[in-house]
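Our preliminary data section would be incomplete without showing what the modeling component actually yields. Below, a chain of 112 amino acids is followed by its predicted structure, encoded as tokens that our downstream tools consume directly.
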Amino acid sequence: QVQLVESGGGLVQPGGSLRLSCVVSGLSFWNYAMSWYRQAPGKEREWVAYISSSGDSINYADSVKGRFTISRDNAKNMGWLQMNSLKPEDTAVYYCNAYVYWGQGTQVTVSS
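Predicted structure:
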């Protein structure tokens, strides 16, 4: 059974940082690219960041470029999203994705 489990969300003030984690099990993680998505209330889910299976190729949505960093460790079957200089508009449920599989999401709230 494939599972993706996100953690690390929470409430943070504008300008703060959070590091999201995604633990993958039941999947040959090293064979698949990984992405992070987010969904804000009343909005569609949007893509945030992408990292290839080897980690050699990385892309970011323009809205997070320069502030967020995606990474992975295939030996640990884990991926991360480091989020710095957070803004209120970053408030959303964040999801990790690998192949056709999704995690349950972790809430990130940026508010003073």
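The mean pLDDT is 97. The chain has no helices and eleven strands. Preliminary results of this kind motivate Aim 1 of the renewal.
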